[in-house]
Amino acid sequence: EVQLVESGGGLVQPGGSLRLSCAASGFTFSSATMTWVRQAPGKGLEWVSTITSGGDTTSYVDSVKGRFTLSRDNRKNTVYLQMNRLKPEDTAVYYCNADLEDYEYWGQGTQVTVSS
């Protein structure tokens, strides 16, 4: 059974940090391009960041560049999104996505709320 399980969300004050994790099982994680997307209240899905299967290349939406860092550990089948200097506009449900070209999988999402 394929699973992507996100964790690490929560309530944080502006300027704070969170680290999201996405633990994968049921497929060859090391072959998957991994992506985080988010959905703010009342808005559509927004791409946040992507990391290639080997972890050598990452890309970010402009609004998070310099604040978010995406990494992966292929031994642990896990991808991490380190989020620093969080802003209220980062408030959203964050979803993990695995792309294996012929197949695509999604996690259930984790809520991130940035508020004082």
Report on the structure:
Helix content is 0%, strand content 53%. By secondary structure, it is mainly beta. A hairpin with a 4-residue loop joins β9 and β10. It is globular and about 40 Å long. The mean pLDDT is 97.
Give the structure's gist in a few sentences.
The protein is an all-beta fold. It has strands at 3-7, 10-12, 18-25, 33-39, 45-51, 58-60, 68-73, 78-83, 92-99, 104-106, 110-114.
Number of helices: 0
Name the overall outline: globular
Residue-averaged pLDDT, rounded?
A: 97
Structural class: mainly beta
Q: What's the story with the biggest beta sheet?
A: 7 strands, mixed
Strand proportion: over 45%
Residue stretches low in confidence (pLDDT < 50, at least 5 long) are none
| DSSP strand count | 11
Order of helices and strands: EEEEEEEEEEE
Helix content: under 10%
Distance between the termini: 40 Å
